[in-house]
């Protein structure tokens, strides 16, 4: 995956983790794609949406499709929007921890490739899966309204992590969750637990682990929130960067798609995600680095930010917070400053030990 870093004070549209799309005038005519169904006449699809094939990914793609149809009458026509399922590396390798597979973009690279090759027109991603630097030739001008950022605790025998007996096994593929669990409850054991939401719930019921944790946003989008035993506050479990946010990418030279996507963008979400991703970019986070962050609009209308960096075993945790105006420049500066603070606190030896 190509990484482009900003070279101007205004942030490159292609390279910045906080890229700000500016739709241009003189939009080109959208190129039609043809979707053929068995036994039916070919239909012209104006937009092909690329997505992973998990139930959650499809729910997010359907939400995107429905919002596009509601906002643009020409897209409400039968067959105007097509959903294209693409299998990613992260979907295909399920028997290893994400950190052991290596590389960034485990759940996005193949979708990005399809976008650049013109096989799809837009790509729908869970923002927490998107690397901090986008591939050259793509842009991410749209975030849909953010869902609940908190984590759900799911267990058949206890109501919370605190109630689990010593030695209980918690299943999680997330080092962010693992480090925060072990920091507060060192008597628990955390094991790798991969698979989609349905698979993890089935493994829990079969007794593979005593408990697990999932993003509440995913459960809500799947209409499965009733599976949550309890919900952890952000004070108990700081979320992943951009947790609960959906991002939609297109080619950077596709004015028509940029126009469509700009109509769906939720600015409060975009700015919060930009702040958190700037924090992540400074720390150069990967699947071996437990990092958490949350930016939100507080009661006074300002931005409040919290960031966390930890060792996987929870023995070391660095935290920081910031507050400032809810504006793009100030929030990006906040995330960057917080990242540099924790990077300095941890020191180079901390990051070397994670490799």
From TrEMBL:
* An annotated GO cellular component: chloroplast
Record localization: Plastid, Chloroplast
- The residue ranges of the Porphobilinogen deaminase N-terminal domain are 47-258
User: Do you know which Pfam families this protein is assigned to?
Assistant: Porphobil_deam, Porphobil_deamC
- Recorded protein name is Porphobilinogen deaminase, chloroplastic
Function per UniProt? Tetrapolymerization of the monopyrrole PBG into the hydroxymethylbilane pre-uroporphyrinogen in several discrete steps.
Tell me what organism the protein belongs to. Answer: Eragrostis curvula
Name the family the entry cites: Belongs to the HMBS family.
GO MF annotations for this entry? hydroxymethylbilane synthase activity
Pathway of action = Porphyrin-containing compound metabolism; chlorophyll biosynthesis; Porphyrin-containing compound metabolism; protoporphyrin-IX biosynthesis; coproporphyrinogen-III from 5-aminolevulinate: step 2/4
Q: What is the lineage of its organism?
A: Eukaryota, Viridiplantae, Streptophyta, Embryophyta, Tracheophyta
EC number assigned by the record: 2.5.1.61
- Describe the location of the Porphobilinogen deaminase C-terminal domain by residue ranges: 271-343
What are the record keywords, sorted?
Chlorophyll biosynthesis, Chloroplast, Plastid, Porphyrin biosynthesis, Transferase
Tell me yes or no: is Plastid among this UniProt entry's keywords.
yes
Q: Which domain of life is it from?
A: Eukaryota
Task: Name any Gene Ontology BP term.
Answer: protoporphyrinogen IX biosynthetic process
């Amino acid at each position: 995956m190509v990484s482009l870093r900003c070279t101007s004070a205004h942030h490159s549209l292609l390279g910045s983790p906080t890229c700000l799309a500016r739709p241009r005038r003189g939009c080109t005519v959208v190129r039609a794609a043809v979707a053929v169904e068995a036994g039916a006449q070919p239909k012209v699809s104006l937009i092909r949406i690329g997505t992973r094939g998990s139930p959650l990914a499809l729910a997010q793609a359907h939400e995107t499709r429905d919002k596009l149809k509601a906002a643009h009458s020409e897209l409400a026509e039968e067959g105007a929007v097509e959903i294209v399922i693409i299998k990613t590396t992260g979907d295909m390798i399920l028997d290893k921890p994400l950190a052991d597979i290596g590389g960034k973009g485990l759940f996005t690279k193949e979708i990005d490739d399809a976008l650049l090759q013109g096989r799809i027109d837009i790509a729908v991603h869970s923002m927490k899966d998107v690397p901090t630097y986008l591939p050259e030739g793509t842009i991410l001008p749209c975030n849909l309204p953010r869902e609940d950022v908190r984590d759900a605790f799911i267990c058949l025998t206890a109501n919370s992590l605190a109630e689990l007996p010593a030695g209980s096994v918690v299943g999680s593929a997330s080092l962010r969750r693992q480090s925060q669990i072990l920091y507060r409850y060192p008597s628990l054991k955390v094991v790798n637990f991969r698979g989609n939401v349905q698979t993890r719930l089935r493994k829990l019921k079969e007794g593979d682990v005593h408990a697990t944790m999932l993003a509440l946003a995913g459960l809500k989008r799947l209409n499965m929130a009733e599976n949550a035993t309890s919900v952890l506050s952000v004070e108990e479990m700081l979320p992943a960067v951009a947790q609960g946010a959906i991002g939609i990418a297109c080619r950077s030279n596709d004015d028509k798609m940029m126009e469509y996507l700009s109509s769906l963008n939720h600015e409060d979400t975009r700015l919060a995600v930009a702040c958190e991703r700037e924090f992540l970019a400074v720390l150069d986070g990967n699947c071996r680095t437990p990092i958490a962050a949350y930016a939100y609009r507080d009661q006074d209308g300002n931005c409040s930010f919290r960031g966390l960096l930890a060792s996987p075993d929870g023995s070391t945790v660095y935290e920081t917070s910031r507050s400032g105006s809810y504006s793009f420049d100030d929030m990006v500066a906040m995330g960057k400053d917080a990242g540099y603070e924790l990077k300095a606190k941890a020191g180079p030896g901390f990051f070397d030990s994670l490799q």
